[in-house]
Amino acid sequence: MAAAPVWSVDPRTGKRREQVAVEATPGEVGRTVAAAHAARAALADRATRAAFLRTAADLLEGAEGPLVEAADAETALGPVRLGGELARTRFQLRAFADVVDEGAYLGVAIDHPDESTTPPTPDLRRYRIPLGVVAVYGASNFPFAFSVPGGDTASALAAGCPVVVKAHPDHPATSELVAKVLRRAAAEHGVPQAVVGLVHGFDAGLELIRHPLVAAAGFTGSVRGGRALFDAAAARPVPIPFHGELGSLNPVVVTEAAAAERAEQIGTGLAGSMTLGVGQFCVKPGLVLAPEGADGDRLVKSLTDAVSDTEPGVLLDHRMRDDFVTGVAARAGLTDVSAPVTPGAGGVHTVAAGFLTVPAARLAAEGPHDLLLEECFGPVTVVARYASPQEITAVLSRLPGNLTATVQLSAEEAAGAGRGAELLAELTPLAGRVLVNGWPTGVAVAPAQHHGGPYPATTSTATSVGGTAIGRWLRPVVYQSTPQALLPPELHDANPLGLPRRYDGRLEH
Amino acid sequence: MAAAPVWSVDPRTGKRREQVAVEATPGEVGRTVAAAHAARAALADRATRAAFLRTAADLLEGAEGPLVEAADAETALGPVRLGGELARTRFQLRAFADVVDEGAYLGVAIDHPDESTTPPTPDLRRYRIPLGVVAVYGASNFPFAFSVPGGDTASALAAGCPVVVKAHPDHPATSELVAKVLRRAAAEHGVPQAVVGLVHGFDAGLELIRHPLVAAAGFTGSVRGGRALFDAAAARPVPIPFHGELGSLNPVVVTEAAAAERAEQIGTGLAGSMTLGVGQFCVKPGLVLAPEGADGDRLVKSLTDAVSDTEPGVLLDHRMRDDFVTGVAARAGLTDVSAPVTPGAGGVHTVAAGFLTVPAARLAAEGPHDLLLEECFGPVTVVARYASPQEITAVLSRLPGNLTATVQLSAEEAAGAGRGAELLAELTPLAGRVLVNGWPTGVAVAPAQHHGGPYPATTSTATSVGGTAIGRWLRPVVYQSTPQALLPPELHDANPLGLPRRYDGRLEH
Predict the structure, then answer these.
(1) pLDDT of chain A, 509 residues: tens digit per residue
(2) Are A423 and A216 in contact (CB under 8 A)?
């Protein structure tokens, strides 16, 4: 049987651009994983890894022109957005190099023998070591920042783990180009190119998660795809950690006082956030609880105006376009649902942004309207009009886990008056990031960041963005009664590497 | 149908002592979980939790007499061991209270707005919050330290999570008594007694892991039982973290130089470790790689003498006794396996300690001897005699994950000469705790401790012993652009609680 070709497709026309590769056979997946595994020792040195990551950032900068061009041709995301995403990707690679240099992520802890504890404590020295080969599943909507050179890859390499990336079929040419750049960066530091493996094909993705030498996986994508891989990871003879970001509704609550104070500003802000990148962000606000009455009407009016002004856009591929058109039609057809601006097919290859409204009471109990509580990828949101604070609580109690939850408060509420604190307490159990008077689109790469949330937002309690994302690819090991001569320098009493650590129970840095 | 009775059984006679309870119906499990969930707010205050844990330790101390008596009657572990285990349990409760007081476990991180990053950073403030109700599955072999008042319960309560414990059928009376003590401690601090739920019964255990309000689980037990619960946790509509400690062979490598230097000491030490607690420790050394030749013979001779002197002992229950007798017979019947001291039935209710020897070459490739690479619970170990360092490597490469791995080195090797470092590097991928010139039995409760290891030792990368065990029951949440008036004090700039934190990227304490 001939190998299945992998095509790069132009979503602006639906036409094939070029054949990029062929789908990997099980044998090829196995060889790629084995080569990555065999190369892992080259990533053992922290300084080498940090230098490799920085060189990768530099080389991506040098290759920006062709990379953005290829990505735009395959994703239609536009050169401005893609240039920004590539800059973010470089920043992220460098940020993980800094994390490696600092070394707090190693979690070094040293206890000296202590007869006063129950039971007595021997000499114990712990730090965290890399798990092994990490399988990375690239996302459709971020050809750079959540794909081959993205956060999963950067954090895994930072941890000392080789990666094998399963390229997303929406940008195979970009994936190939970027993998070459990363491998060139590896080679510059004497690291085998096999530490960045790349495979194409749906079956190859399943083969990858089942491979005995794959030690963990990172995923960004749909609930259906992510759950299938999560299930495969859990069903292995030796189960492995599966850190998947699957789907999120990202609820927004607008208080009556906030609507009274700045209905127009909120309506316009919401329009910007929900249509950004043609609504193809995992943190797009997909459900907005806004008050009934005149202030809520003003909000809806300004949302209507702003969304009506939005140009039709091209989604990442035609299957997504079909799903969007079908999905919004099914939602719009529900009882009591209106479409002030009708979302749907905007042309042969484009879609038009829009939004739906529904009485919040329709979402307060199980029924056909539960469809409105499921993520719909693309430029659409649902505004649920509530008649009372009890309705807000009722709807929130029915939501699955989310990446983000947002509340729009008045100035007085933000200062502590009224229901602000109470609403924050209601939103916190729903999400991993809670925002006040902001919009969830835009995820900063920062030490305090957390990009994750209760299932199905993520399949673990970890983050995929920010410094702590490195922890996904590590496991602790403790050495007991081990002579200093045999210990790695990280665990020497003298702390020759100057690492932050817990020393006889006390934090030191 | 009448509720199934739960009996306390005396393993010294196999006779029922008393009916302790009845197995929980699905409805009872549901009510217990719901009550625990409803009580969770009472655990929100850190100072209350720390005080509760310390009072629990105090009350367990006060109740030592009846607790040890009940536990001994059900487990035959003996009052000395059980008194020590209860002391360890109290120490552990107090240690987690200290962890709560210190607050480093919250992982507080604060980033102020920064326009210089790509993308720009808004105000971000992260800490870790409790997951919710934790299901705890008590272990057979530790009626205190890994059961109702054990590390899973202590760390979950410390994290702010109510627990529902599934009592182990080997000590239901002890479980009931201890639960009452913990509830009395809760009541002393105004915490609803429902934060410590207790259910009995196999089906109740499955019901528990599937309950929608159960947010995570801790387990210590067999590979078969643990894997079934792990699978159930992963198959839920909303999967939950399952931190299970399942099984471990705990390999020991004795170098030729070590055997030459102190064969007798190693043989005697091994006998003590493998027969401790009638071989019923998860860290019992179950496979020992010892050299062929005269020095190895001396080791085997001293092991033979010491194990021969060991009195028959009572296992925790008669099913375990049957499994032990069957298991050692199957192993002893393999080609080339000898039994210098025959393990097996030592009397009607007891078992006799013993050990087997086998040429290491028999373990170097797949075959019937793989049975020797599976844990056999009870007082037996396997000494594999190797002819070359290559045989050590070959056998180690075939081992599943372990809690511990040990190497016995000569004084010169321990000082850095010879193969010491190399062997340590070979053992590290196999285990979560690596020991030099010690024995794996005895697990200190210390900040640097790690009690866990690659599957099947544990089903996650977490520890079940030591301060970091609290992290299993927490998830991060970050507040973005949230006014200080609405933030918890943990996230205020002024740090009113004096918490260790990462502030604008820098570690502070």
Answers:
(1) 578 999 999 999 999 999 999 999 999 999 999 999 999 999 999 999 999 999 999 999 999 999 999 999 999 999 999 999 999 999 999 999 999 999 999 999 999 999 999 999 999 999 999 999 999 999 999 999 999 999 999 999 999 999 999 999 999 999 999 999 999 999 999 999 999 999 999 999 999 999 999 999 999 999 999 999 999 999 999 999 999 999 999 999 999 999 999 999 999 999 999 999 999 999 999 999 999 999 999 999 999 999 999 999 999 999 999 999 999 999 999 999 999 999 999 888 999 999 999 999 999 999 999 999 999 999 999 999 999 999 999 999 999 999 999 999 999 999 999 999 999 999 999 999 999 999 999 999 999 999 999 999 999 999 999 999 999 999 999 999 999 999 999 999 999 999 999 999 999 98
(2) no
Distance separating the N- and C-terminal Cα atoms of chain A: 59
ipTM of the complex: 0.98
Q: Give the span between the Cα atoms of B337 and B358, in whole angstroms.
A: 5
**Cβ atoms B106, B128 nearer than 8 A:** yes
- In this structure, chain A runs to a length of 509
Q: Which domains does chain A have, with CATH numbers?
A: 26-101+128-246+460-473 (3.40.605.10), 251-436 (3.40.309.10)
Residues of chain B positioned with their CB less than 8 A from the CB of A437: 481
CA-wise closest residue to A248 among A427, A432, A408, A386 = A432
Q: How far apart are the first and last CA of chain B?
A: 59
B437 and A481 in contact by Cβ < 8 A? yes
Interface of B with A in 91-130 (CB under 8 A): 91, 104, 107, 109-111, 114, 117-122, 124-126, 129
Environment class of A11 (CB within 10 Å of its CB; exposed 0-12, middle 13-18, buried 19+): buried
Distance of residue B17 Cα from the nearest chain A Cα, in angstroms: 31
**Of all helices (H) and strands (E), which one includes residue A341?**
strand A338-341
- Residue B86 neighbours by CB under 8 Å, 6+ apart: B60, B61, B64, B67, B68, B144
How large is the angle between the packed helices B46-62 and B151-159, nearest 10 degrees?
150
Answer whether A486 touches B (CB < 8 Å). Answer: yes
Q: What are phi and psi of B503, to 5 degrees?
A: -115, 115
**Continuous H helices in B148-255:** 151-159, 172-188, 202-210, 223-235
